[in-house]
Design goal:
400 residues, alpha/beta, Rossmann fold, 2 domains, seven-stranded mixed sheet, four-stranded parallel sheet, globular
């Protein structure tokens, strides 16, 4: 399924708050903070010319966030960044003077951080980032997870010293419970989704994601003409599309938002023209995208700058994982988790469906940029779906 953006705000300027969050100054701040992370390195940008030829497009590049900050996901850029920003802001408030990122580990700032507790809900990746950020500054983290979060993903969060709280229900139920408990206890909730009255911190999380866009644009031989980016609550799609719109203006790439058909809250929101909470049904294999209630801040951006909204099936996502693991020609092998390859799943579906191909404007001159938003964050599940371990896939590229 696909729909074009027909919202009255489409192609109009972003709200000033969103332009400030996702624009050049915000992205500069993110990159400055990253420079002070000891394990920071740009993630790879892979060219896939053989796959581009198969799809009938001019060029295809994949930014591989499976290598980000030791967490295996683009989410590493958001939650930890927000935690660090919030600690420095609280230190400024208590100390009564400006505090720079270079002072993060000073005794004065650490004394503030140790009194702070951060909480969030997660399907796995965002919670890992918040937990890592709390560990970096010496704060406490409580991470709320629902029953569908695998033990492997829970263990990956726990290794940063976070306390895990299991919640019955869906991701959205976990968001509500985390917010309730945090308010009762005076903790700081660091959510990657937003709701009425809670927008700034999710905006900081989204701001963190602009770093991967900046990195990709610096490495590409030419700017992209098209992008397909997956959506859960919409945060990453909004961050990428908003930053590109502010960078390129009328020359921005055609932007397609990709939802799992079983958790298509952004697609249904676009179809209705306003935020829509959808019913919980059968779980999707794209576990990191299994969200049923859109982020209000994300939709506020997407209604202005996203061009097309589409859905992909379960088999599409699994096929994309396998296609990246078993490349043709001299294309590199890429380890993409269940949700990581959803953007490619959207591109393949669009390229093979005449109506979508025409609506998106895909042709032999199209230059596509995708984000592999996660690696094998659950290695056992990855091996089940791909038939190879992540190490075996990586070894294929190393031998090439």
């Amino acid at each position: 399924m696909f729909v074009l953006n027909t919202h009255p705000d489409y192609n109009k300027p972003l709200e000033p708050t969103d332009a400030e969050t996702l624009g050049e100054n915000g992205a500069n701040t993110v990159e400055r903070f990253l420079a002070h992370r000891t394990n920071h390195a740009e993630t790879p940008l892979h060219a896939l010319p053989a796959l581009a030829r198969e799809l009938g497009v001019g060029a295809l590049h994949v930014k591989d966030e499976g290598h980000r900050l030791g967490l295996g996901s683009f989410k590493a850029l958001g939650g930890a960044y927000a935690v660090i920003r919030l600690v420095l802001e609280e230190a400024e408030r208590r100390l009564g003077c400006p505090v720079d990122i270079t002072e993060l580990h000073s005794p004065e700032v650490m004394a503030v951080a140790v009194t702070m507790t951060f909480a969030c809900a997660t399907d796995g990746n965002h919670g890992r980032s918040v937990a890592q950020g709390a560990e970096l500054v010496g704060a406490k983290a409580l991470i709320f997870v629902h029953g569908g979060v695998s033990e492997a993903r829970v263990a990956a969060i726990s290794r940063f010293g976070a306390e895990i709280v299991r919640v019955d229900g869906t991701y959205d139920d976990t968001v509500a419970e985390a917010a309730r408990v945090a308010i009762e206890n005076g903790w700081t909730i660091v959510s990657d989704t937003s709701w009425a009255g809670y927008e700034r911190i999710p905006g900081l999380v989204m701001q963190g994601y602009t770093a991967m866009v900046r990195e990709a644009l610096r490495r590409l031989p030419e700017p992209p003409t098209h992008m397909f980016v997956q959506a859960g609550v919409g945060g990453v799609a909004a961050a990428v599309s908003g930053h590109l719109a502010l960078t390129f203006g009328d020359r921005r790439p055609t932007f397609t938002v990709v939802d799992p058909v079983r958790a298509a809250c952004i697609f249904e929101t676009a179809r209705a023209g306003h935020p829509v909470k959808i019913a919980h049904g059968e779980p999707t294999v794209m576990a990191m995208l299994e969200c049923y209630d859109p982020s209000l801040v994300a939709w506020r951006v997407l209604k202005h700058v996203a061009d097309v909204f589409m859905t992909v099936e379960e088999d599409d996502a699994i096929a994309a994982m396998n296609r990246l693991a078993r490349p043709s020609g001299h294309d590199p092998a890429i380890v993409a988790g269940e949700s990581g390859g959803a953007g490619l799943a959207g591109l393949i579906r669009a390229a093979s469906t005449p109506a979508i191909r025409a609506a998106v404007g895909l042709d032999e001159n199209a230059r596509i940029l995708l984000f592999n938003t996660e690696g094998a964050t659950d290695p056992e599940r990855y091996a089940e779906l791909v038939g190879m371990t992540p190490a075996q896939v990586c070894a294929k590229t190393n031998r090439a």
